[in-house]
């Protein structure tokens, strides 16, 4: 079985310094940037994840670039998964290196199904402006990540832009202070499906909190999402799927996620042993 999970706001979380000090040994430092703590993980969830590694194949699945993923030392250096999906599915990292076959396949799919990046810029440049956009990055030559002042963002203009982008083969996702613009072909589902086929695994359990995770959760045989984030908020207003959500929100939702994965894995192993 494969456990494919988003990282930020699903397994790892940023915490204010005071909150991190208050939680103490209940959380573990997951990531440093310039010597400063960036993200944490529940200590009990980390222990459970390590134990699960003997029973399943853990695949981190993140919108982060390869380099941004590698700096999460708690996952990339201590858990050391053989496979990781980065760049929202644009890259598959195998033993620390991008899979060239997957890179070539994705580049071809993007060319076939989405308009050229310059056409996207022609549209987005009309809407995105310094009054509310702090910075813009073209990530791994696959997608755009815009850091914004959420309270100043012209929501209707962004919605109209998103509708046009969708017709051009690009998706838009708003996550906190970030607005992602991603080609339809670059997604977490297809990357995990590729790994599933490569390894000959028959089942996938997935977790994630954002709309960029939705295609992965819909693809998986079993799925669970934390009780916070973009996906949870959407389901409260316009339910689009039958999702399992944790009772807890925030960093300790991870404990419930790993407990769910443990129960699914145990049941799957029992079925395999009895068949």
From TrEMBL:
<feature type="domain" description="Sucrose phosphatase-like">
    <location>
        <begin position="2"/>
        <end position="219"/>
    </location>
</feature>
<dbReference type="Pfam" id="PF05116">
    <property type="entry name" value="S6PP"/>
</dbReference>
<protein>
    <recommendedName>
        <fullName>Sucrose phosphatase-like domain-containing protein</fullName>
    </recommendedName>
</protein>
<dbReference type="InterPro" id="IPR006380">
    <property type="entry name" value="SPP-like_dom"/>
</dbReference>
<dbReference type="InterPro" id="IPR036412">
    <property type="entry name" value="HAD-like_sf"/>
</dbReference>
<dbReference type="InterPro" id="IPR023214">
    <property type="entry name" value="HAD_sf"/>
</dbReference>
<dbReference type="InterPro" id="IPR024197">
    <property type="entry name" value="TPP-like"/>
</dbReference>
